[in-house]
């Protein structure tokens, strides 16, 4: 019940100001977002890769309001890529981007987002890695998929995300599996109406398995974005049945969540990529993490009260 309330708060400026200023917030934020600057996050990248994990890097931010902010977002990614270059990690460190941060919701937003994301994809390719387009709320997805298709003409490794809770996703998965795309499948983290999305967790889980089967049997590269132990073992079984080798799919989890499981899967020989977010505009990302697990909210509330 709390999840939708927290997701609604994630879009409120008043709540943003209150929560950002509360003493004790920082300590909880740190669990999910290990730094605000490239300098703070580079040692984390080194540490995770040393432990056999791979990364997808997210410079946090979304719902910007001016074209200048979109350019700043582009530049933040370009700086990160520039700093990654000497580490020579190749695809072990890729980027995840939210097109809303690149201007997608502004007037002329589709073209603006494409113009801002393209240099990031080009720079990533120059250091031997790639970019995945995150999925945001359902109203943004037609534009995201069109940008994905456009970028893939020159950079076929560009990935995208699909969300199991949306009714449209089974058809999207069939299309992406047939055209050989890299696709991250997640349950979905936004507050969506019953007209477009399953509201029941079990329905979403069942849809996740159906979509995963399509991806595993297809021509593309499935990225299983989930911490759910049941779905992780179903994914292993489906990969096995589809005759996929360990380098023909990967698991992805968020930084700070089920780290032991990330290391266990990697030790078993699976590719495991950690979605690592950093930056100053962490509010939306942080609130979605609270909404996913009520225990996080209790921990958060306690840390504020005891400060
Ligand atoms: P759940 O059933 O929510 O969780 C299973 C178990 O995992 C829980 O019991 C708990 O032990 C643990 N867990 C899950 N979430 C948390 C948490 N926040 N804190 C502590 N423990 C937790 N969503 C989008 O809409 N668009 C995206 O582009 C997107 N990208 C993602 C990228 C990655 C790599 C991952 C892992 C998730 C992404 N998500 C994205 C979020 C996703 O949609 C889910 O909201 C999130 O992954 C929780 O679902 P779950 O599959 O882990 O299953």
UniProtKB/TrEMBL annotation:
SUPFAM superfamilies linked: FAD-linked oxidoreductase
Organism whose genome encodes this protein: Streptomyces bullii
Protein name: proline dehydrogenase
Involved pathway(s): Amino-acid degradation; L-proline degradation into L-glutamate; L-glutamate from L-proline: step 1/2
Pfam families noted in UniProt: Pro_dh (PF01619)
Start and end residues of each Proline dehydrogenase domain: 45-301
Catalyzed reactions per annotation: L-proline + a quinone = (S)-1-pyrroline-5-carboxylate + a quinol + H(+)
Keyword presence, Flavoprotein: yes
Keyword Nucleus: no
């Amino acid at each position: 019940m709390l999840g939708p309330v927290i997701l609604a708060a994630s879009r409120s400026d008043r709540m943003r100001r209150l929560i950002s200023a509360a003493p004790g917030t920082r300590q909880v934020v740190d669990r999910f977002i290990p730094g605000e600057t490239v300098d703070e996050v580079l040692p984390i990248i080194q540490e995770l890769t040393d432990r056999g994990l791979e990364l997808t890097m997210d410079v946090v931010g979304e719902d910007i309001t001016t074209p200048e902010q979109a350019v700043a977002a582009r530049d933040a990614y370009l700086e990160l890529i520039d700093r990654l270059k000497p580490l020579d990690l190749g695809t072990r460190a890729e980027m995840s981007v939210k097109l809303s941060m690149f201007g997608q919701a502004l007037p002329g937003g589709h073209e603006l987002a494409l113009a801002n994301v393209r240099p990031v994809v080009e720079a990533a390719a120059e250091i031997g890695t790639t970019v995945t387009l995150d999925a945001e709320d359902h109203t943004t997805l037609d534009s995201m998929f069109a940008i994905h298709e456009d970028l893939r003409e020159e950079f076929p490794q560009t990935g995208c995300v699909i969300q199991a809770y949306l009714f449209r996703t089974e058809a999207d998965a069939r299309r992406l599996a047939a055209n050989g795309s890299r696709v991250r499948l997640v349950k979905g983290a936004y507050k969506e109406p019953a007209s477009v999305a399953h509201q029941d967790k079990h329905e979403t889980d069942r849809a996740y398995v159906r979509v995963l089967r399509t991806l595993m049997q297809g021509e593309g590269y499935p990225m299983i974005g989930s911490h759910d132990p049941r779905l992780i073992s179903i994914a292993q079984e489906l990969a096995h049945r589809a005759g996929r080798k360990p380098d023909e799919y990967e698991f992805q989890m968020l930084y700070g969540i089920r780290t032991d499981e990330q290391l266990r899967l990697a030790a078993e020989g699976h590719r495991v990529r950690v979605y690592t977010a950093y930056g100053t505009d962490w509010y939306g990302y942080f609130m979605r993490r609270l909404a996913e697990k009520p225990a996080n909210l209790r921990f958060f509330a306690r840390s504020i009260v005891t400060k």
